Amino acid sequence: MSTLYELTEELRQIQEMAEDEELIKQFNESITLTKELKLEEIEEKAYGYAKVCKNLDYNVAQLEGQAEFLKKELDRINGKIKHSQKSKKKMLAALLEAMDLAEVSKFKNNEFTIYQGKSVTVEVLDKKKALEQNLATTEIKPDKDKIKRMLKNGEELDFAILKESKFLVIK
Fold first, then answer.
1. Has this prediction a pTM greater than 0.70?
2. Beta partners for residue 114, in sequence order
């Protein structure tokens, strides 16, 4: 551990360095140079980021084109699915009608067992009466567009704030 004399001498040397204008000038020049070098590095990084962003824009454009193609293909496939589902529904309805007319409730062989099932569903005939008797469900959620307009008009709401985000534009 240093003595008080040594600590005092070290403190005196530091004080002299702090008061030495030439040393202060060299220090400030060193800081300025370092800042300039860092700024150059940041600028280089910015150009690199710009190149990557432009490449990503190109990728996005390509992917959007692929997405459009895939959307059309998906629409075509969904059309086939709907057609197949309608065909199946018609066939099952025809089979059910034939079984009813023949008064047969079940067919069974080694491959299939076919029988008539029953289910019970509710058909609401008067929605207004159902609502009056509290026989309805509702999803309640905040109206963010209305809240945003209120906040922008200067109203203070203790349950919401406007958040601003920043972004870069690269042309």
1. no
2. 107
d(CA 83, CA 85): 5
Q: Token pair of 165, please?
A: 């985000």
Cα separation, 16 vs 87, whole angstroms: 96
CA pseudo-torsion sign 101, 106, 108, 111: positive
Q: Note the pLDDT tens digit of each residue in 105-128.
A: 888 888 888 888 777 777 778 878
Please tell me the distance from the alpha carbon of residue 147 to that of residue 152, in angstroms, as a whole number.
Answer: 9
How many angstroms from the chain centroid is the CA of residue 14?
55
Taking Cα atoms as reference points, which of 154, 150, 151, 171 lies closest to residue 163? 151
Say if residue 168 is exposed, middle or buried (CB neighbours under 10 Å; 0-12, 13-18, 19+): exposed
DSSP string, the chain: ---HHHHHHHHHHHHHHHH-HHHHHHHHHHHHHHHHHHHHHHHHHHHHHHHHHHHHHHHHHHHHHHHHHHHHHHHHHHHHHHHHHHHHHHHHHHHHHHHHHHT--EEE-SS-EEE---------S-HHHHHHTT---------HHHHHHHHHTT---TT------------
